[in-house]
Every structure is written in C-alpha cells, then in structure tokens.
Design brief:
Blueprint lengths: L2 H38 L6 H31 L6 H33 L8 H40 L1
C-alpha cells in the first residue's frame, strides 16, 4: 500500500458512510421528521414541506460533492490530478456547493420572514444561527473557487515543467 493509499482508502470508506447516511436521511429520517412537524403544527401550512424539499436537495448536493471527491481521489492516486479532467469534478463541486448555498440562503430568508411575522417565534437565536450558516456557506463556496484557481495555476506549472523536462 502506497503512502497516498493510506489516506485515500480510509477517506473513501468515510465517504461511503457519509453518502449512505445522507441516503437514509433523504429516504427515511427527513420525510418522517417533517411529516410529524406538519401534523403537529398545521398552522405552519406548507412550511414543513418546503423545508423537507430543501433538506432533501441539500443532501443531494452533498452527495454530488462526495462523488466528485471520490473521482478526484482516483486522479490523485493515479497522479493525474493536474489534468483537465480534474476541472470537471472541481467545477461540479463548486456548482453543487453554490446550489446548496442558494437553497440554504432562500430557506433562511423564508424562515426569518416567518419568524418575524409570528409573535410566538420571535426569538432572535434562530435568525442569528441561520445568518451564520449562510455566511459560513458563502465562505466555503468561495474557498472552493479559490482552490480551483490554485489547481489551475498548479496544472499550468506542472504542464510547463513537463515540457521543460
């Protein structure tokens, strides 16, 4: 087992576990949770169902990222990470993260409006938490964009070095 395999193999095992956990959440946990919420609080109307849709789509975005990371790990293992193929996977990660962030921002804005218009829910904790999550999500997406630029520069340098040698 090579040095890189000592990291790639356990990481792939963890990725499979996270993917499976997300799948269980999408199919079993989230529908049950939001169905219960809708039954317990009919006054909230369609909000629990909107939250269910967003939660399932957020999980799908994470699953796309997991598949892309898996493919990038294959490229790392094969010493082909500095190739054009890597950019397809990195671009898919950026797009999945951006979609996930937009879903989160939209849900957060909706929930903040609902909380603001519902006197018994006017606790500032949830809007502050949601705002923090949206800001952290933006930082993660923009960090991934920077990482993509760094990969592009490293790929160019690798290509230049290969031409010199």
């Amino acid at each position: 087992m090579t040095k890189i395999d000592r990291v790639v193999v356990p990481l792939k095992v963890l990725l499979v576990l996270v993917f499976a956990g997300l799948l269980v959440a999408q199919l079993l946990s989230l529908p049950g949770q939001f169905s219960h919420m809708a039954a317990e609080h009919p006054e909230r109307g369609a909000l629990p169902w909107l939250m269910l849709v967003v939660a399932v789509l957020e999980a799908a975005c994470f699953q796309v990222v997991i598949v892309c990371i898996w493919r990038l790990l294959d490229l790392v293992r094969d010493d082909r990470i500095f190739s054009e193929r890597a950019f397809r996977w990195v671009d898919a990660i950026v797009w999945a993260m951006a979609v996930g962030w937009l879903l989160l921002a939209g849900l957060a804005a909706t929930l903040v409006v609902v909380i603001h218009n519902t006197p018994e829910l006017r606790d500032p904790g949830l809007p502050i938490l949601l705002t923090g999550m949206v800001l952290i999500g933006a930082v993660v997406v923009l960090t991934m964009v920077v990482m993509r630029v760094l990969l592009r520069r490293a790929t160019v340098l690798r290509t230049d070095l290969d031409e010199v040698i």
